[in-house]
Design a protein that fits this description.
By secondary structure, this protein is of the alpha+beta class. The protein has 3 helices and 4 strands, in the order ααββββα. The protein has a single domain, classed as Viral Envelope Glycoprotein, domain 2 (2-Layer Sandwich). Helix content is 41%, strand content 37%. The longest helix has 15 residues.
C-alpha cells in the first residue's frame, strides 16, 4: 500500500522510468486499437499507454491496480465488454 502511495506521487515520466528499472513487464493487450503495456511492481499492476504504441517513446497514460485479484477482475470485465 505504501508503494502505491509513493509511486502515485511521482511524475508520469518518473513512474515509467521506475517501472522499467524495477518492475516486470508482463505483456501487452490491445484496447480500442491501442497497445497497452502491463507491468508488475510487487503487488501493484500498472498499465501504460505510450505515444505511437511504442514503449521507447513517452508515456501518455498510466493506470494502477493493487493486487492480483483486482487485476484478474479488471481484465475479466474488460474481456466481457469487448464482446
Amino acid at each position: 500500500m505504501i508503494l502505491k502511495f509513493i509511486f502515485s506521487k511521482l511524475s508520469l515520466e518518473s513512474q515509467v522510468k521506475y517501472l522499467k528499472r524495477k518492475g516486470v513487464a508482463l505483456g501487452t493487450r490491445v484496447k480500442n486499437g491501442r497497445k497497452i503495456y502491463i507491468y508488475m511492481l510487487r503487488d501493484l499492476f500498472v498499465e501504460v499507454i505510450y505515444q505511437n504504441d511504442n514503449a521507447d517513446q513517452k508515456a501518455e497514460k498510466l493506470s494502477m491496480l493493487r493486487g492480483l485479484k483486482n487485476l484478474n477482475e479488471y481484465l475479466e470485465n474488460e474481456f466481457r465488454t469487448t464482446f
